Amino acid sequence: MSQTLIDIANESQPVAGVVSANTFARWLDRILIGCLFALAFCAPHSIAATQAAWALGLLVWAVRFAVRPRPILQRTPVDYALLGFFILTFISALLSYNPEISIGKLRAASLFTIVYLVAENVGTRRMVRLLALTLIASCMINVVYTLGGRAIGRGVMIEELAADSPLRVAGVREGDTVLKAGGEAISNLRELQEQLMADGSSGVPARLRVYRLEFFHEFDLPRHQMMSETSQLGVVRWSRGRDQRAAGFYGHYTTYAEVLQLIGSLALGLFVARRRKLTWPGVLLAVAAAGIAAALLLTVTRASWLSFLLSSGMIVLVGTASRKAALVVALAAVLLIPAGLYVLQQKRQVGFFDRRDNSITWRETVYREGFELLIAKPRHLLVGVGMDSLKRRWREWGMFDEGRLPVGHLHSTPLQIAFERGVPALLMWLALLFLYARMLWRLLARKTSALDWTERGIALGALGGAVGFFTSGLVHYNLGDSEVAMVFYLIMGLALALERFARTVPRTEIT
User: Fold this and answer.
1) Angle at CA 483, nearest 5°, toward 481 and 484?
2) pTM over 0.90
3) How far apart are CA 461 and CA 140, in angstroms?
4) Among 241, 257, 274, where does a domain finish?
5) What's the total number of domains in the chain?
6) What distance in Å separates the CA atoms of residue 196 and residue 346, rounded to the nearest whole number?
7) Which residues contact 368 (CB under 8 A, 6 or more apart)?
8) 508 occurs within a structural domain
9) 439 and 336 share one domain
10) How far apart are CA 88 and CA 111, in angstroms?
C-alpha cells in the first residue's frame, strides 16, 4: 500500500504547477497523499482520526505552497457558493447573540476546506478511483461489525421475568436488554449473575445499564434483594439482545445512517456504471452496496431509508437507459418497503408516518418555534441568531415547549441554517447544492469517452448521494453532524477533481 502511495505521488502532476525537484517537496507530496488516504479510510469510523488527517493535510498543503514556485489554485464550479456560504456564516458568528459560542463553531464550519484539500491535490484519475474505493472498502469494516454484532447479539434480553424477580423490583421489564452489570459488559445470564454476586459483601447496589426502546437507562439493584444463584434472578426466559439501533463505530445511529447513505450511493453508482456486472469487481460492488443497505436498515432511521431509496432511483434512472434495470429497482423497492416497515414496528414500535411517534410531534413543535423566532425580527432573517446560541438562550426564547422536550437543535438543515445564519446563508447553501448537482449532471451527460466506468460510477454515486443528503436534511440537521459533513465534502472534492480532468485532461487510462 505504501509503495502504491509513493507511485501515485511520483506520477501526480498537481494543478498548482510543476513539481519541485527538491527532495523536501517530494516528501511533502507523499505526506499529503497519505493524509488524503487516511481521511478516506477514517471517515466512516472516527471523527477524531478524520479531523486529524484533515488538519495535518491542510498544514502540509500550506507548507508545500511555500516551497513551490507560482502556486495556483484551480477554479471550480462551486467556488462562489461554497466560499460565499462560509463568509455569511462567519459574519453571522460575529453578529451572534453569543459570539463567543458561535465563533468557536467556525472550526466545524471550516470543514468545507476538505473539498479543496481533495480537489486541488488529487493529481490523477487513478488517485480519484483509489480514494473512492478506499472509502467504500473502509466502510465495509463497520458494516461487517454491524451485521456480525447483530447476528451474535449483545447483552441479555429479558423475555420473561418472575413476578418477584429482583430485576423487576429494580425497574427492569420484559423486552429490556441488560448490557452491563457493575460496569462490566455481559453476554449471557451467567455473566450477569457473576457480576451481580461478585461484590455482594460490599453493600453497594449493583448498577445495571439497560437498553429500552431507543434509550439507555441505569438501575440500581440492592444486593440484599438478590435471590440465590440457582434462582437465575427470577429470569424465566432470555435471549441475546438484538434490538438496538445500529450505530457502527459512531455514538449515534442517525450519524451512521447518514454516512451509510452517502457511501452506499457511491458503491451503487459504481455497480450501475459497470457494464459487466458478473465479474469479480461487479460482484464485490454488489456485495458492498447490499451490505451497506442492510446496515442502513438496522439503523431504523426512516429519513435515511427514504433518502437512500430516492438516491438509488436517481442513480439507476440516470446511469442506465435499460427498462429492465428500472424494473428491478422498482421490484427491490416493493420488497424492501415491507421489510423496512416490519423492522420499524419491531424495533421502534411505530409506523412510517405515525402521529403517535414522539419524534414526529417533537419535530413539529421545534419547526413551529424555530420559524416563529426566525421571522420575529429582521435581524434574525438577515444574519440569524448565531450558531449554537440556541443552547444558551432557549429558555429566554421559550423553545422546546418551554423545556418539556429534549433540548437540542431544529432537526432540519434548511431551517437550522436560516435560524442560525440567516436567510441569505440558506439561499447560498441551496445555490451550492444546485450548482454541485448541475455540475454532476453535465459531467454525466458528456460523451462516454470522457469518463471510464469507475469515473462515471463515482459521478453517479455523488449525484445520488447529494439528492439523498438534501432529502434527509429536510428532517435531520445532517450538515451539523461533522462526521456526515466530512464524508459529503470528501465525495464533493473527488467529483470536482473528476470534472476538472474531464474538462482539461484527455483520458488515457482505460479500465
Assistant:
1) 70
2) no
3) 16
4) 241
5) 2
6) 30
7) none
8) no
9) yes
10) 15
